[in-house]
Inverse folding.
């Protein structure tokens, strides 16, 4: 069985690379037809970065991602995952660049939150991941946009959490004879 796997593995790797090259070509062709489609640019950037993180020997994907990201940053398209992935790429190699990208992502999130409350709920997980990475890179120097972000989510999520009534059964607490029923209002 391992003999068969050792023969098939190089072939499968070749097929994966071939499929990636075809996908990159399809994205490039689509971008030539629609150069102003920034959503398409964002999807292409995420595609390239995700494949780079899977196989870091693929420098072509990073070059494409960086080129597309430069166009996305100057548009008003918001895809926070692009900011997260691009910051993650630079983090550890160029922390100042990573901080700048994370700050742009948080600022973009804050700007959109002021326009739509629903947006806050849809993208908070990605924004939170960006904020945590930014906090890790900043040493005792919280950016004003970061403070604004945490105030925004605190107001929404902590308030909702505390408003819900939570009851624990004694079985959950591990002591069914004590009659303890903590309630949080």
């Amino acid at each position: 069985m391992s003999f068969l796997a050792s023969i098939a593995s190089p072939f499968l790797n070749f097929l994966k690379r071939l499929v990636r090259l075809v996908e990159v070509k399809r994205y490039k062709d689509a971008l030539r037809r629609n150069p102003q489609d920034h959503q398409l640019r964002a999807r292409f950037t995420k595609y390239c970065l995700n494949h780079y993180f899977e196989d870091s020997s693929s420098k072509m994907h990073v070059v494409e991602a960086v080129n597309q990201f430069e166009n996305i940053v100057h548009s008003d398209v918001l895809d926070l995952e692009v900011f997260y992935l691009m910051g993650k790429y630079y983090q550890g190699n160029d922390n100042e660049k990573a901080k700048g990208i994370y700050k742009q992502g948080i600022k973009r999130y804050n700007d959109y939150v002021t326009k739509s409350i629903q947006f806050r709920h849809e993208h908070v997980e990605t924004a939170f991941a960006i904020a945590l990475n930014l906090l890790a890179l900043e040493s005792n120097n919280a950016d004003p946009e970061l403070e604004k972000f945490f105030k925004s989510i605190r107001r929404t999520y902590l308030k909702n959490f505390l408003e819900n009534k939570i009851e624990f059964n004694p079985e959950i607490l591990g002591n069914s004879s004590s009659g303890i029923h903590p309630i949080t209002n």
Residues 46 and 82 are 6 Å apart (CA to CA). The mean pLDDT is 77. The first strand starts at residue 166 and ends at 167.
